[in-house]
Design goal:
Length: 88
């Protein structure tokens, strides 16, 4: 049962990854691209967590945590730059 759930989740996340890549390419507005890139990185974090669970390796969880933190900071900086035209 655990393997079925894992494969369904991996397939679902892969499909969402394809949709988010298409959203990054097709969206014209800067704010939309910022949101689409944030969505893309969060899906990659979810895939890293699934992969860490499948391999029973905590190193991928560390990578997922670092990627999530970098994506959060990057989204904040990009949104602030988009709104006020200054980073700090």
């Amino acid at each position: 049962m655990h393997e079925i759930v894992f494969y369904l989740a991996a397939a679902w996340m892969t499909g969402l990854l394809a949709v988010s890549v298409a959203a990054v390419i097709k969206v014209r507005s800067t704010a939309g691209r910022i949101l689409a890139l944030d969505m893309l990185t969060l899906i990659l974090v979810a895939l890293l967590v699934l992969y860490a669970d499948a391999n029973r390796s905590p190193y991928y969880l560390d990578a997922a945590l670092i990627l999530a933190l970098l994506a959060f900071i990057g989204t904040l900086v990009a949104a602030r730059y988009h709104g006020q035209r200054k980073i700090f």
